[in-house]
Design brief:
Blueprint (H helix, E strand, L loop, with lengths): L1 H23 L13 E5 L4 H12 L3 E6 L2 H12 L10 E5 L6 H15 L2 E6 L14 H29 L2 E6 L12 H20 L5 E7 L6 H9 L2 H7 L7 H13 L4 E3 L1 H11 L6 H44 L1
Parallel strand pairs: 1-2, 1-4, 2-3, 4-5, 5-6, 6-7
Helix pairs in contact: 2-3, 2-9, 4-5, 5-6, 8-11, 10-11
Enzyme class: oxidoreductase
Keywords: Endoplasmic reticulum, Lipid metabolism, Membrane, NADP, Oxidoreductase, Sphingolipid metabolism, Transmembrane, Transmembrane helix
GO cellular component, one term: endoplasmic reticulum membrane
Length: about 325
């Protein structure tokens, strides 16, 4: 009898929690398309940024892509223009801009873009880079460059658009972080720090947006087959390749498309594959939906046990790599 009563109490508590969450959380805002909306994508000349811009154009948006290489931008504009659903009506343009430059310059550039096409409805922060290596062996200028591009390259454009979006009481901001912002990984020390900063900024701004109709989504893509990833591979230690490769390799088209649709469907987090879902449930604290909270409440113990086993396998990779280097060192001494 006592067990029946306990079970009834647990069920009652679950129902009460679900009702509280449903009543207190901001209502989900869903957009079916982006027709005549202005979408700005930083890092939009290639990779995930370009893929997201293409998907936005397919959904009827006016698209602006931002980057530093004008030739790549011109080529991307042609590709994006070719998929527009309303040829002749949709506008696609580019802006040559370093998003780590002086904030006033970024502010003026974004303001000029709005004059040409209209207010920015969606900002997708895709500009980023990764240089791998053990932290003590990394160049100081590389560490700074990653912080500047990954963090400030997201923070500066976001700061500009938020005030106007709040004034209009509509808009979507997308932050592109990384699974490396959910778990410290060998060889990603400096990169992870930058992407954790992006995650921290996103989750703080999310709370600042409570009560408004402005939405922010945080994406955690795994390894994605982009030009930037090919460059990253050049500096990636063997251990990092083995660990990060366990999450699989996504195509930029899959990631970009999913990001756009997750944002339009009011998602707070956009994750990819089993590893992304596991890590986000364990580490993401912002409130997305009653279902998310309830799943975290009842599964975290079990998920933590799974993650402990995964981490131990990563530790073995690191130990094996250390042993291999030590053995090679001994052979050289001989």
């Amino acid at each position: 009898m006592i067990f029946i009563i306990i079970n009834l109490i647990i069920v009652l508590l679950i129902c009460v929690l679900a009702i509280i969450l449903y009543l207190c959380l901001d209502k989900n805002i869903i957009y079916k398309n982006l027709k005549s909306k202005h979408v700005v994508v930083t890092g939009g000349s290639s990779g995930i940024g370009k893929a997201a811009a293409v998907e936005a154009a397919k959904l009827g948006a006016h698209v602006t892509i931002i980057g530093r290489d004008e030739q790549k931008l011109k080529s991307a504009v042609m590709d994006i223009s070719n998929v527009c659903t309303a040829q002749g009506e949709q506008k696609v343009q580019y802006a040559v801009l370093d998003v780590t430059s002086d904030y006033l310059l970024i502010e003026k550039s974004l303001s000029d873009l709005e004059i040409n096409i209209g207010p920015i409805f969606m900002l997708i922060n895709c500009a980023g880079m990764c240089i791998c290596g053990q932290f003590e062996n990394m160049k100081v200028e590389d560490i700074k460059q990653m912080i500047d591009l990954n963090y400030f390259g997201t923070a500066y454009p976001t700061r500009y658009v938020l005030k106007e979006m709040k004034g209009r009481n509509e808009g979507i901001v997308v932050f592109v972080s990384s699974e490396a912002a959910l778990l410290g990984i060998y060889g990603y020390s400096a990169y992870s720090a930058a992407k954790w900063a992006v995650r921290g900024l996103a989750e703080s701004v999310l709370m600042e947006l409570v009560g408004t109709n402005v939405r922010l989504m945080l994406a955690f893509p795994p390894d994605t087959d982009t030009p930037g990833f090919q460059i990253e591979e050049l500096t990636k230690p063997k251990e990092t390749k083995l660990i990060s490769g366990s999450g699989g390799l996504q195509s930029p088209e899959e990631v970009g498309k999913k990001m756009i649709h997750d944002a339009l469907n009011g998602k707070v987090y956009s994750v990819f594959g089993f590893s992304g879902k596991l890590l986000s449930l364990l580490n993401c604290g912002s409130l997305e939906s009653p279902g998310q909270v309830l799943l975290q409440v009842f599964s975290l113990g079990f998920l933590r046990a799974i993650m402990a086993v995964v981490l131990l396998s990563f530790h073995k990779i690191v130990r094996d790599g250390l042993k291999e280097r030590l053995d090679k060192g001994k052979e050289k001494v001989k």
